[in-house]
Write a structure and sequence with these properties.
Belongs to the glycosyltransferase 20 family. Pathway: Glycan biosynthesis; trehalose biosynthesis. Its EC number is 2.4.1.15. Keywords: Glycosyltransferase, Transferase. This is Trehalose-6-phosphate synthase. Strands 1, 4, 5, 6, 7, 8, 9, 10, 11, 12 and 13 form an 11-stranded mixed β-sheet that branches. It is globular, with a radius of gyration of 23 Å. The longest helix is centred in the first third of the chain and has 21 residues. The termini are far apart. It folds into 2 domains: about 190 residues, Rossmann fold; about 210 residues, Glycogen Phosphorylase B (Rossmann fold). The protein is built from 17 helices and 19 strands. By secondary structure, it is α/β, with parallel strands linked by helices. Helix 3 crosses helix 4 and helix 11 packs across helix 15. Helices cover about 40% and strands about 20% of the residues. The structure holds 6-O-phosphono-alpha-D-glucopyranose (G6P). 6-O-phosphono-alpha-D-glucopyranose (G6P) binds next to strand 1 and helix 2.
């Protein structure tokens, strides 16, 4: 990378905590880059390939300054984090304060002032990098809870930019959100954006309520009126400066749902490949040809309800409602945030439970639970989806849950049953799944039995309806509709009418 290109300015700037690649040391000692885990990367990769833009994010390593580079045709600008910042900003404030708080306090959030200081410092660094990389009037799209202060910091430095923010995880009800000692600063940070996107109608509603309660600002449907001072030097460049009903000057911010999706075509293509279908058959054979394969695929996270799923499965075995000869549960739990204590404890708990159930019920020829603590390439995931008669998504709280959509997209044979938690954002759209409350273990067990026994015709009917939804609303449509709202906002037009609905 030469000196000139380092100062290059881009028209579309994506900012997320992680770059879409991780650096890994090869066998020969040479470093290389491979796609990093997480739904966000899967969702945005196709957008970045189409647009001539740049992606700003952390490269996943400590204490290293890496020059901007290109990977797979995408321009990347790494933001460095020190070992201490990884502990305080990423593992601490992002994943031990905000993550549990925003997921209904399933685990208790920790509040530490030093973590907040690091969060502020790192958010400033991301905002500075975005300000430097953006062409005049550029569109900047900031992602997720790790970077909620970036929109306001960026607006302050570059009032000419069009700024969008998308929250991939839930936004909690006010009664929970109000615990946060820095609840006003986060709201101020987000309100720096022109458009703030959420997964569900309920998330956008929770956010607007927090704005009204904490700031006293008025909201009209999805529009939030942010008062500005007339002598504010930036007021001239604010695109949506208008007067409110009291005659005061306000900036308008659009906050509404934009339910994220997947690259549906990619999953359909993979699922149509003969070698992947053959691999699916092989998986069934390797499992001892059970009548029913149930599948769970999750990051090993306490929000995913893996323990609830195992409890229900274990009870069905204990009550002789199912037998290991007929039913196998495959649980893929990909390693995640392993240095955060709550995640370490969760792993121990899950592995203890799996060990107990297998010890009690497995036979020499049939294992009750095939537990896999790995991430897998997409090809293998699609083969697993094709092999799985029943997909179990039992999240206690989840922004969207793309696994549910990946399963549906992969079932080109219009077979398979999706058991889906109503606490996952996907349940707003995927209404023909068997919707469950994962806290209701009896209800979950009944849904699992119903899924096993469901006749082929009903499976096909439900799967066809689910597939229609995921085929129509793919990730390209999601990003296009968000970017469209942002572009319109650049022209001073906040579309009040016809927001995309996530009701199916
Ligand atoms: C969720 C978050 C993403 C995050 C991903 C993986 O999907 O919404 O922002 O990147 O989990 O988590 P990690 O901590 O490994 O980035």
């Amino acid at each position: 990378m030469d000196e000139d290109s380092r100062d290059e300015r881009y028209e579309l700037v994506i900012v997320s905590n992680r770059l879409p690649v991780d650096r890994v040391a090869g066998d020969d000692g040479e470093a290389s880059w491979r796609p990093s885990p997480g739904g966000l990367v899967a969702a945005l990769e196709p957008v970045m390939r189409q647009e001539d833009g740049v992606w700003i994010g952390w490269a996943g390593v400590a204490d290293e300054v890496i020059e901007p580079f290109e990977a797979d045709g995408i321009s990347l600008i790494p933001v460095p984090l020190s070992e201490q910042e990884i502990e305080e900003y990423y593992e601490g404030f992002s994943n031990d304060t905000l993550w549990p708080l925003y997921h209904d306090v399933i685990a208790p959030p920790s509040y530490h002032r030093e973590w907040w200081d690091a969060y502020l410092r790192v958010n400033r660094r991301f905002a500075d990098a975005a300000a430097r990389a953006s062409a005049p009037g550029a569109v900047v799209w900031v992602h997720d809870y790790q970077l909620q202060l970036v929109p306001a910091l960026l607006r302050e430095a570059r009032p000419d930019l069009v700024i969008g923010f998308f929250n991939h995880i839930p936004f909690p009800p006010y009664g929970i959100y109000s615990q946060l000692p820095w609840r006003r600063q986060i709201i101020d940070g987000l309100l720096g954006a022109d458009v703030i996107g959420f997964q569900r109608v309920a998330d956008a509603g929770n956010f607007s309520r927090a704005v009204r309660r904490l700031k006293g600002f008025e909201t009209r449907g999805p529009i939030i009126e942010v008062p500005i001072e007339s002598d504010d030097p930036a007021s001239g460049s604010h695109r949506h400066v208008t007067s409110n009903k009291h005659g005061g000057l306000v900036r308008t911010v659009l906050a509404r749902q934009f339910p994220i999706s997947i690259d549906t075509q990619k999953y359909q293509d993979l699922a149509s490949r003969p070698e992947i279908q053959e691999r699916a058959r092989q998986i069934r054979e390797d499992l001892g040809n059970p009548k029913t394969i149930m599948l769970g695929v999750d990051r090993l996270d306490y929000t995913k309800g893996i323990g609830h799923r195992l409890k229900a499965f274990g009870e069905l075995l204990a009550e002789d409602k199912i037998s290991v000869d007929d039913v196998t549960l495959v649980q893929v739990a990909s390693p995640s945030r392993e240095r955060v204590e709550t995640y370490r404890l969760l792993r121990d708990e899950i592995e203890l439970t799996v060990g107990r159930i297998n010890g009690d019920y497995s036979s020499i020829s049939h294992t009750a639970i095939a537990y896999l603590h790995h991430g897998y390439p997409r090809e293998e995931m699609v083969a697993l989806y094709l092999a799985a008669d029943v997909m179990l998504v039992t999240a206690l709280r989840d922004g969207m849950n793309l696994v549910a959509k990946e399963y549906v997209a992969s079932r080109v044979d219009e077979d398979g049953v999706l058991v889906l938690s109503e606490f996952a954002g996907a349940s707003d759209e995927l209404r023909q799944a068997l919707l469950i409350n994962p806290h209701d273990i009896e209800g979950l067990k009944e849904a699992m039995l119903a899924a096993i026994a469901m006749p082929r015709r009903e499976r096909a009917r439900r799967m066809r309806a689910l597939r229609k939804r995921v085929i129509t609303n793919d990730v390209a449509r999601w990003s296009a509709s968000f970017l469209d709202a942002l572009t319109r906002s650049a022209h001073g037009d906040h579309p009040l009418q016809n927001p995309p609905t996530n009701r199916g």
